[in-house]
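Record passed on underneath.
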Amino acid sequence: MNKHNHKNVKHIKEYIYLDNIEVNSILAQFEDGIPKVIEEIKQSTETNAVGTAHKMSNGVSGGVNLGAKGEASFNGEYEANNSDTNSEMYQEAISTVYHDYAVNIMTKELDDASLLKTTTKQPEGAFVQLTSSFNIIDPMTISSNIGDEMVSFLLSFDTTNDDLSNAKKGFNLITNFGKLLNNLFPNSILLSTNNALTIAEKDNFRMNESQLKSLVLANRKITILGKIESIISENDLNSGLISEGLLNNPVALTTLMPKFSFFLLSSFGLIKKDDRLVKPIAIYFE
């Protein structure tokens, strides 16, 4: 029988992506944003230190008789050590936990100011917190070249078999698609969710490439906290209008590759008309 009280179950967020610069920028625009984060960290570390000191004191007084002088000496030494430990904990918290606390404070500040929306049907510039099933696309992984020997091994076919030849063509097509995506979306990971495409900077992930591969198999819902940068229109996905615009307006060359990028994604069913393009601030599971 489970004796744990379900009301006390703690839900731990698993942050897989964090844009620290964006978090700090948003917090700085709220008068007490950053001070709130620092105060929350300070209170947390002080509470942990006091709790540890109380347990240690009870253990000493209840289990070992040092005499009045010995106990006073120990307590004085412990308090000094505890002060050093508390200082180290505080510094470590500032450097390693700051941004996790900051996301919570930032989310609350945006929500309190009625700036945070939970649906995709929002205008450009809106802050959103979207929870959805997802597909993750890593162009670098897709573009990894698979040699003929590897294809033969994977499929266990003879190298002269027609089926193997067709399989090689299929793998080559996938690889070339990945290379094209990698050129169009360099140093990025794409997350396709309900009515949105999130373009995330690879360097901000807290997972390496091998770990990111595990997310391809994940069935959990993901939460993306970010900002809507633009909205896909029908013209953005019309290759005919793109080429026609180039003939009538050479300046349209500046929009050719961006529009082609999203036309390509739509061709593979990764985006559609009215989808939102999201710049992520934080991505996590909970």
The beta strands are 14-18, 116-117, 127-132, 135-137, 188-193, 196-201, 222-231, 276-285. The radius of gyration is 27 Å.
